[in-house]
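Practice problem 4.
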């Protein structure tokens, strides 16, 4: 992935700071979800769950070769195909081969940051394949020819009147800013496409090696349709998104939905893997799991940064970060924004291109406090020489201890 010509973090961050509408939206997001998650962690009855989940993630990463080979074995036992892609190009080419073999003309997708990472949509479109996003936020972004600005809420930077105008312009719908009506308009447009599509492409929240099933969470029901209606289902996963056992999977799922949206469980949890069996009412004739490296094994071999691969992409650190809360997700110029994006993007896409992301972090430590699996992102910023110029005295570092994790300079989220 390369930065779009002429765009850089500093300029994009400045645009975010000048955008009053964005500031208002992000403040609301952080006040509800960020503070809500912190309060929930403090009141959890099972206070050891986050530590156990962190240990589980780190153990899985230490044995990733075994876990992934068990996963592949069990997916194949269920009639699925597993492909290990070394690079983004490799993954894209595999998807294109599967599409060509199955005469695919239309693809419906559910939200997948990995798909954005490898640039899959553009490749499908240049092969004359129609691609439609079915997650409401992603659909809005696609219509607006925009980019996601949050891991869980991709169109969070747009307010409902902007979305109403967009639907009016792109779909010919009568203007409304009523969220329920806007959802109905999108649902009507998407439903037939989901029924008629040849291929469904999804991400993967957690892949369970023991069962050979991937789990996918949503609140919209679109994933159920994307994984069951088309003839072919292709699931994309970063190689770190695996759990060894169902027990491990269970704890992570609970933390994921809580961290992402303050939900005990999301409205839908889908388990997919393997092909439709005789007697099944629905399901794909072919299932492909694409396990993507694209720089992750290099991170795995790095003692200082391996921990970032424990991330379950819940987005909670975005909901508390005073920097993200001011500049928004577009400034990061990556599918991975916020504090975790500031660590992952330079590691995956090149330190020279993405160095400024680390420099922008405040080192307040709020991301560590909120992370369901307690990933020590501040340590990684701290380890990273390039973040030092942004440290103002030692006050912020001191605030990372004693449970007082708020940014002392900007006072955000106090
Ligand atoms: S670093 Fe932690 S809080 Fe941030 S997205 Fe990953 S798991 Fe969630």
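Answer key:
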């Amino acid at each position: 992935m390369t930065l779009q010509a002429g765009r850089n973090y500093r300029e994009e961050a400045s645009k975010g700071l000048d955008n009053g509408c964005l500031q208002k939206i992000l403040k609301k997001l952080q006040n509800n979800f960020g503070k809500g998650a912190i309060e929930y962690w403090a009141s959890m009855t099972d206070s050891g769950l986050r530590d156990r989940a962190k240990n589980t993630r780190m153990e899985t990463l230490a044995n990733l070769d075994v876990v992934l080979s068990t996963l592949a074995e069990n997916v194949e036992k269920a009639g699925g195909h597993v492909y290990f892609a070394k690079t983004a190009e490799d993954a894209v080419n595999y998807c294109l081969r599967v599409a060509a073999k199955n005469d695919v003309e239309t693809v419906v997708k559910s939200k997948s940051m990995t798909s954005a990472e490898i640039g899959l949509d553009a490749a499908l479109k240049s092969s004359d394949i129609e691609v439609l996003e079915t997650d409401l936020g992603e659909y809005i972004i696609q219509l607006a020819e925009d980019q996601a600005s949050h891991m869980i809420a991709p169109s969070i930077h747009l307010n409902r009147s902007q979305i109403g105008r967009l639907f009016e312009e792109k779909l010919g719908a009568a203007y409304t800013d009523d969220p329920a009506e806007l959802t109905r308009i999108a649902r009507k447009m998407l439903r037939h496409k989901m029924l008629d599509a040849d291929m469904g492409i999804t991400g993967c929240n957690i892949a369970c090696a023991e069962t050979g099933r991937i789990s996918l969470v949503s609140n919209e029901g679109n994933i159920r349709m994307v994984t069951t209606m088309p003839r072919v289902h292709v699931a994309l996963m970063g190689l770190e998104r695996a759990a060894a056992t169902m027990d491990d999977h269970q704890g992570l799922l609970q933390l994921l939905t809580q961290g992402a949206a303050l939900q005990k469980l999301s409205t839908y949890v889908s388990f997919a893997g393997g092909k439709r069996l005789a007697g099944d009412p629905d399901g794909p004739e072919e299932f492909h799991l694409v396990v993507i490296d694209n720089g992750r094994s290099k991170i795995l071999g790095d003692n200082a940064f391996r921990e970032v691969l424990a991330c379950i992409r819940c987005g909670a650190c975005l909901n508390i970060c005073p920097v993200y809360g001011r500049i928004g997700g577009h400034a990061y110029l990556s599918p991975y924004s916020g504090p975790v994006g500031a660590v992952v993007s330079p590691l995956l896409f090149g330190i020279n291109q993405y160095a400024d992301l680390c420099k922008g972090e405040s080192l307040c430590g709020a991301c560590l406090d909120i992370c369901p699996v307690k990933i020590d992102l501040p340590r990684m910023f701290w380890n990273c020489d390039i973040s030092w110029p942004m440290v103002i005295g030692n006050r912020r570092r001191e605030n990372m201890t004693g449970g007082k994790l708020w940014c002392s300079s900007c006072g955000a989220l106090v």
